[in-house]
Design a protein that fits this description.
Low-confidence stretches: none
Mean pLDDT: 95
Strand content: 15-25%
Distance between the termini: 52 Å
CATH class of the largest domain: Alpha Beta
CATH architecture of the largest domain: 3-Layer(aba) Sandwich
Radius of gyration: 20 Å
Shape: globular
Number of helices: 11
Order of helices and strands: HEEHEHEHEEHEEEHEEHEHEEHHH
CATH superfamily of the largest domain: NAD(P)-binding Rossmann-like Domain
Length: 327
């Protein structure tokens, strides 16, 4: 596991250990600690020489990588491990598709242009696409490119579902972006981890959109589940996409998870995922994801948002002004 101390990497390590796998975690050792049952190797993978020295003489059945920064780092890691591992699973993103992503599109949709040798990590889509190219060049058919959709669950370090849970915990009138039956596509991080490990065991490569089918949950069912867990006394005040837009409130960032059902972003909750599901992807009920995320927040208080990533959620005063116009 390249990484393994935060969110997706942490879930992969936990799932692998639960399966009885022998796990080596390669980490820079700057933030977070690997699970005690995993072997930890400290190496700064941004330095190809440091990684090569740390992994000298070692080989593994499979590698899983979650890197989101400069593609050059993925390129160097993949080249180094090409002769030492049988499989390379790369956690990519549906962000690699050219914008706007068409509703119902599959893995053949047009992707952004990217350079796998780039040391630039400022553009997320290009960084992920560059990482994909680098892994495919080094591992060929042994490469699994998992273009993940919206990932939620315990230890989420973006803060989307945690924000809703904390907001409902505060109670009162809560702006709920409608329509309530807006279908969502989401993925519990533990289901992503289990699927990637199963693919590694089978030696399955290729490109996959990895997320639930559209409608696995709706905005209404998700917020209802969050309300039951953290804010039973809160009142959901539903507002239309038109009213929200007119108030200058941003979808996705100020109202996490939610996107209007029409417009450029509509495809982000409506892509074709049949290839991944045919390959064994199974998604637990969203109510379980909500409940387990709340239990984690109550037990540990949540985690910090990574440096450089803006916080999500609606400013309380901005919400108050909007709700004052709603009877």
């Amino acid at each position: 596991m390249l990484g393994g101390t935060h969110f997706v990497g942490r879930a992969v390590v936990a799932a692998a250990l639960d399966r009885g796998d022998t796990v080596t975690v390669v980490t820079r050792g700057k933030t977070g600690r690997p699970a005690p049952a995993a072997e930890a190797i400290h190496a700064d993978r941004t330095s190809a020489g440091a990684l090569s020295a740390a992994l000298a003489g070692r080989a593994w059945e499979a590698v899983i990588d979650t890197w989101s920064g400069a593609p050059r780092v993925v390129r160097d890691s993949a080249r180094l491990l090409a002769g030492r591992a049988g499989h390379y699973g790369y956690v990519s993103s549906r962000s690699v598709y050219s914008w706007p992503t068409p509703v119902g599109s599959d893995e053949t949709a047009t992707v952004v242009k990217a350079d796998p040798s780039s040391g630039d990590d400022t553009d997320y889509a290009e960084a992920k696409r560059g990482g994909e190219i680098a892994v495919a060049e080094a591992f060929g058919e042994r490469a699994l490119l998992a273009r993940a959709g919206l990932i939620l669950g315990p230890y989420e370090d973006v803060g989307r579902l945690p924000w809703w849970l904390r907001r409902l915990q505060r109670g009162g009138r809560v702006l709920a972006p409608g329509p309530p039956d807006r279908p969502l596509q989401l993925l519990d991080v533990r289901d992503l981890a289990a699927w990637m490990l199963a693919c590694a065991q089978k030696g399955l490569g290729g490109v996959f959109n990895v997320v639930s089918r559209s409608g696995h949950a709706t905005m209404g069912s998700l917020l209802a589940a969050a309300k039951r867990e953290s804010g039973p006394d809160a009142e959901l005040v539903w507002a239309s996409p038109e009213a929200i837009s007119a108030a200058g409130i941003e979808a996705w960032t100020e109202l996490p998870i939610w996107l209007p059902p029409t417009g450029e972003a509509a495809g982000l909750h409506d892509c074709n995922v049949e290839r991944a599901h045919a390959a064994g992807l199974a998604c637990r009920p969203a109510t379980d994801t909500v409940a387990d995320t709340w239990r984690w927040l109550c037990a540990e208080g949540g985690s910090h948002v990574p440096r450089g990533r803006p916080p999500v959620g609606l400013d309380p005063e901005k919400e108050r002004r909007f709700l004052a116009t709603r009877t």
